[in-house]
Amino acid sequence: MFHTPKKSRQLVIPLALALGVSACGTADRIARIGETPALSPIDNPIAHKSYEPITLPMPRPERVEHQPNSLWRSGAKNFFDDQRAGRIGDIITVQIDISDSAAMDNTTERARSGSEDSNLTSLFGVEGSLANILPEAVNPSSLSNFGSNSTTSGSGTVDRSESVSLTVAAIITQKLPNGNLVIQGRQEVRVNFEVRELLISGVVRPEDISHANTIQHTQIAEARISYGGRGQITDMQQPRYGQQLYDIIFPF
Fold this sequence. Notes:
alpha+beta, 6-stranded mixed β-sheet, 6 strands
């Protein structure tokens, strides 16, 4: 009876699982031939399984003293109503203008050599017996000799440039105890058979929101900005599933 080696079975099982997943994805793509990519439905972001409320260190709550028969309220910043976003469900406009560049060039070289020679002409009398074992081949004055050489050379170069300019509307999904606002926004644009998707989330201060109800991406703490696409063009730019699997499991 033919038995599959253990190492072969360890490679066959992941390969079979990967082929099964690839077959399901391939069948789904075949079923969508000739159709435009579907847009995501509009739903409540909090209802997503991946959504998690944000917990950050908060200062101690301040006691608010109410003063009767007064036009001003303690802690109020404006006499009239503020039309800027500040409650859960309000919409705020986020302006993204990223223009970053970085250049770095490092070179490292190191060389080291060492040598040691020991003179063991007297070693508790043992050196006299060595001639019986190895006649005419033992020199007690040079029984040990150590030497080492080490050379290291390395170089690295980084040249990066990024530029993104976008505007997206986000929704306030949470109000933290210190008054900061958690925002999350998503925008999808479909052109022919390609969908461009923009995702943004983070924490903002109400004081940083302008009177036009806009905020810059540089004023968003813990900002997460993702801009990408899905569709036929994106599929063509990606290696095939078999090639990706081969790159993962091939050890050389």
